[in-house]
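Can anyone check this?
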Amino acid sequence: MTGKAKPKKHTAKELAAKLDAATTNRGGGKAGLADRSGHEKGGHAKLECPLCKVTAPDMKSMQIHHDARHPKIPFDESKLNNLHAGTVAETSKPESSKPKPGIRGSLKK
């Protein structure tokens, strides 16, 4: 037990845990968004349900999803969308004829 004026030292285990948490990619935030979405090869979501468009990483997870969410429809593996099979084309918004507003909503050029 330490006294009032003595600060407690950090243990090696605690420092190693902090370093690991700070430097390891956990898949969160914007950096992990592409990985989670499955639109690029290597993403977590490999399969997509054709009925509700929910994604799953493997066949077993998709079977569990299908049994829970669509119990009246028989499960058919051939109808599933494989997101890793093909490349997904980027969908960009077409150029609109209306100019985009500048600072504070001004339409001046």
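Reply from J.R.: I decoded it. DSSP finds three helices and three strands in the chain.
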